[in-house]
Specification:
The chain is mostly helical. Among the domains are: 148 residues; 207 residues, no CATH class. Helices cover 67% and strands 1% of the residues. The protein is built from 23 helices and 2 strands. The chain has a two-stranded antiparallel ribbon with strand order 1-2. Strand 1 and strand 2 form a beta hairpin. Helix 6 packs across helix 23 and helix 9 packs across helix 10. 38% of the residues are buried. About 2% of the residues have low confidence.
């Protein structure tokens, strides 16, 4: 009798856990939908009361379900995904906070306790919503980490995640509270794709079309797109759910281009920390520049302007809350604004591996300083900078300084003529930096020389660094292109840089990116010419390069494009953000490794 009873109890426990997990997942999905309804549609005092009561009920139900799951001993995590002590502590702290808020709300709801300032704060609707959102996000992170642990192509996950968030974002921007007078879906889709792909192209005016709520949605899409959707989800999956299986480590390493499986969690933490730190510093500096300036009278307006442009700058998005972008009269002659945003663009465009390498070097310097104080032998590190850091920093300095000098020399009496001396220096610097996929425009581009527009197009195609918020073929690819040409002319048998030999696989990958990029541009310009025959081909080429390389600069052509041409640019932005090779890997099934090779035979190349 005991064995059937024990088996029955095990089955009952298993079914109870399944039911609880389903309820928690439903609450986790319903919570953000409720927030969307609350902020996306006009509300009355009566509807807000109903929403507040509904969220309070969801909070209590979430606490009950989580408590039941804890009491039943949820062992859904296998031995390879056990939570370490730190993560257990974090989850325990989150559960304690959820318990306290839920219990106090139950007590107030049934009038078991008298109301006071503390209990009023605990039961505040905004705190209940925030608590539910955090709890829901943690539960969704568990689901995401489960997906990552399966045998799924990481490139497919990345492409699918970007596509999903673009569709969700386009739906959010269609909500009544997000626009002043409504918007067509094709324009909403274009704006969402441009924000998630951190491009900056827009078929409508961000300042005049979208309300503050809509601009906040765009800001969130920019931040998610700049960090990379899988970086965000992987961070929470590793940090909160303890996803440390070998399979997950390998997949996340592929997504983040990390060759240190044991340091993926630290890498993700560094990415989040560096991003938020730089953006906070940039927002503070921008606030100091616009404080007291005409047009920035309100405190909230100054803060939102600073935060929005700092995030947009570091993520290389190029979106602005001003009708004329950075050429708007409010900031056109504030030379501090283009300087700060230019450096944000540079920091965002050099890539997270460079920051990581820099932090390692700083750590070594500080460690040696301590050892020097203690009179201990210093540690020697002959190669401080990695080859990737060396190439990225070298090419970035050459491109930025060279273009800056050219802009000052060529555009001094043209697009820069209206500015003061400091304004010319700062706007020329911005014009040299922004083609690295930033999209900010501080001058009248119609007054630029044709040669400058051609140079801008080439710089847009080159882009920034790998594993950064920038697009383009990347500076490392451009470096290998030049290096291979020079090496071929000199008759070198292998490519060498910084006393290191570059593998042939990297060269093949670089030329594959270049070939596919030029092919996509040729096909897209041909299609755009067919769809928009009245627009000059030079303007369409500029738009196509700007979209594929996720830049966002335009010559006033984007707004007059038809729906079909806008969809073409959306596809180009999507391909450019996911990555040309990554997109091909997501679509094409990899070939199995062959344990043999064919005989070599040369072909004629003139």
């Amino acid at each position: 009798m005991r064995q059937p009873a024990g088996r029955f109890l095990r089955h009952l426990r298993r079914w109870a856990l399944k039911l609880v997990r389903i309820l928690i997942l439903l609450i986790s999905v319903a919570t953000p939908f409720g927030v969307v309804y609350m902020f996306g549609y006009p509300q009355t005092p009566e509807s807000m009361r109903y929403l507040a009561a509904g969220y309070q009920s969801l909070l209590i139900l979430m606490w009950v379900c989580v408590t039941i799951r804890v009491l039943l001993g949820d062992t859904s995590d296998d031995n390879n995904n056990r939570l370490n002590r730190r993560n257990r502590t974090i989850l325990l702290g989150a559960y304690v906070v959820l318990t306290l808020i839920a219990v106090f709300n139950i007590a107030l709801r049934h009038r078991w306790l008298a109301s006071d300032s503390f209990l009023d704060t605990i039961s505040a609707p905004w705190l209940i919503v925030v608590t539910l959102l955090v709890a829901s996000f943690l539960e969704l992170a568990r689901a995401v980490s489960d997906i990552l642990s399966r045998k799924v192509n990481p490139s497919s996950i990345l492409a699918g995640s970007f596509l999903l968030i673009i569709l969700v974002g386009s739906g959010l921007l269609m909500l009544p509270n997000c626009t002043h007078h409504g918007i067509r879906y094709v324009d909403s889709l274009f704006t969402a794709a441009s924000a998630v792909c951190v491009t900056g192209l827009s078929t409508v005016s961000t300042a005049e079309t979208f309300t503050t709520t809509g601009q906040v949605v765009i800001l969130i899409l920019i931040q998610i797109g700049g960090l990379g959707i899988m970086t965000v989800t992987s961070f929470f999956g590793l940090f909160f759910m303890g996803q440390t299986s070998l399979k997950s480590q390998l997949q996340l390493g592929d997504l983040l281009s990390s060759d240190k499986m044991g340091g993926l969690g630290k890498t993700l933490v560094k990415i989040i920390a560096v991003t938020l730190s730089v953006e906070a510093l940039g927002a503070g500096l921008l606030y100091g520049v616009v404080e007291g300036q005409p047009g920035f009278a309100s405190e909230g307006g100054r803060i939102f302007f600073s935060v929005f442009h700092s995030v947009s700058g570091f993520c290389n998005a190029g979106f602005s809350t001003l009708p004329g972008n950075l050429y708007d009269p409010l900031v056109r002659h504030l030379w501090g604004v283009p300087v700060i945003i230019s450096w944000l663009v540079i920091f965002g465009g050099i890539g997270f591996p460079i920051f990581s390498n820099f932090l390692v070097i700083v750590g070594r310097v500080l460690k040696n300083a301590v050892r020097r104080i203690r009179r201990r032998p210093l540690e020697r590190h002959p190669r401080q900078w990695s080859l990737n850091s060396y190439i990225v920093l070298k090419i970035t300095v050459i491109l930025v300084l060279g273009t800056w000098v050219y802009m000052l020399a060529a555009e001094w009496n043209h697009s820069l003529a209206e500015f003061s001396f400091m304004g010319k220096l700062s706007q020329g610097f911005l014009a040299a930096v922004t083609p690295r996929t930033a999209g900010f425009n501080g001058v009248d581009m119609h007054r630029m020389l044709p040669a400058t527009l051609i140079l801008t197009t080439v710089l847009m195609w080159i882009g920034g660094a790998p594993q950064s918020t920038a697009g383009g073929i990347k500076v490392t690819t451009f470096y290998l292109l030049v290096k291979n040409i020079v090496g071929t002319v000199r008759g070198n048998s292998a490519l060498e840089a910084h006393k290191r030999e570059i593998p042939a696989e990297s060269v093949r990958r670089a030329f594959a990116v270049i070939g596919i990029s030029l092919s996509i541009l040729a096909m897209s310009v041909t299609v755009l010419t067919f769809l928009e025959p009245q627009i000059p081909i030079s303007a369409l080429l500029f738009e196509a390069v700007s979209a594929l390389c996720t830049v966002g600069l335009g010559l006033g052509t984007t707004e007059i494009l038809g729906p079909a041409a806008k969809v073409v640019l959306v596809v180009l932005m999507f391909v450019g953000r996911v990555g040309i090779i990554g997109m091909m890997m997501a679509l094409v099934k990899p070939q199995p490794h062959r344990p043999y090779c064919y005989p070599n035979e040369d072909i004629l190349i003139n």
